[in-house]
Amino acid sequence: MAGASSPPPTPKSPKLQPPLLERAKGPSGLDKIVLRDPRGFSAEVRLYGGQVTSWKNDHGDELLFVSSKAIFKSPGAIHGGIPICFPQFGTHGNIEKHGFARNRLWLIDDNPPPLPVNTAIKTFADLILKPSEEDLKIWPHSFEYRLRVALGPKGDLLLTSRIRNTNADGRPFSFTFAYHTYFSVSDISEVRIEGLETLDYFDNLDGKKRFTEQGDAIVFESEVDKIYLDAPPKIAIIDHEKKRTFVLRKDGLPDAVVWNPWDKRSKTIQDFGDEEYKQMLCVEPAAVEKPITLKPGEEWKGRLELSAVPSSYYSGQLDPDKVLHG
Fold first, then answer.
1. Is 139 helix (H, G, I), strand (E, B) or coil?
2. CA–CA distance, 294 with 287 (Å, rounded to integer)
3. DSSP-derived 3-state class of residue 89
4. Does the annotation mark 284 as catalytic?
5. Cα–Cα dist 113/109, whole Å
6. Which end of the chain has fewer surrounding CB within 10 Å, N or C?
7. Active-site pick, 180, 194, 276, 305
8. Residues near 119 by Cβ (< 8 Å), separated by ≥ 6?
């Protein structure tokens, strides 16, 4: 008979049980799923938008930016975290900016198709989005969008999107996409990005004209809104003041969007503080230049992996061989 010193669960069972995965209410009553790791890492994903709105390290530091003026209710999008731009990024199409996935209510996916086994990942949540009748009037294609949000063994945040064409009429569809990731930074003027040097980009502030990046590293002195093309699978965001480096790894997403609204643009955004541009930076794995096309029954997978490490651990040398695995 088991005594108090040997409780029934096996040593690895607690990792799969509450409170490591819990459904909770947010500030405005929206359901969210809270993921926790035994070492103290955590993440939150809202059912509204399928949107990650928090990612904390083992010290409880918030690593994602969410505006203090963000509105956590329909019909708008939540300003911050990781909004999902689907089936359209930005204005690269004829539907609403950034598509509708970020302002729809997703469901918990209780029976997702299997992903490749990664035994190190114990804490994850699966969501699913299917189009409503109203969505089909806006974008007349049937799809299943499955999203897995996971915490890795070292506190990494992993997002895996799987989008399947379920059109019954034999029609393919095409879409653009981005994980619109808002990083929390100490001061935008103290941040640089490595990994996008010498790449071509579209400048959304100059009529989407194409240019080639000239700098040794990307730093910030004014508003930036660029789409870097054929970006490497690994990008680093280095915050000198916090001595922290974010490492972004991506798979299935060839482009990378970099955005900061700076002061003048910030004042025009209703759900964004006038000075908050100083504490945020968007670096977004994306598929924009070449839309993804799926025939009926075909599935696309796009992955994002984020890690945050002390800058002293980061050599500054991006290794293209160390790409996203799993």
1. coil
2. 14
3. coil
4. yes
5. 10
6. N
7. 180
8. none
Cα 149 to Cα 127: distance, rounded to the nearest angstrom: 8
Task: Measure the CA–CA gap between 113 and 151, rounded to whole angstroms.
Answer: 19
Cα separations (Å) of 199 from 99, 182, 210, 211, 320? 27, 22, 10, 8, 15
User: Parallel, antiparallel, or unpaired: how do β-strands 143-151 and 157-165 relate?
Assistant: antiparallel
Q: Is the pTM of this model over 0.90?
A: no
* Contacts of residue 39, Cβ cutoff 8 Å, sequence gap at least 6: 58, 155
Query: Catalytic: 180?
Result: yes
pLDDT tens for the 326 residues of the chain, in order: 444 444 444 444 333 444 588 888 877 777 999 999 988 999 999 999 999 999 999 999 999 999 988 888 777 788 899 999 999 998 777 788 889 999 999 999 988 888 777 777 889 999 999 999 999 999 999 999 999 999 998 999 999 999 999 999 999 999 999 999 999 999 999 999 999 999 999 999 999 999 999 988 899 999 999 999 999 999 999 999 999 999 999 999 999 999 999 988 887 887 787 889 999 999 999 999 999 999 999 999 999 999 999 987 665 555 544 444 43
The residue behind tokens 């007349």 is 140
* 3 state DSSP class of 137: helix
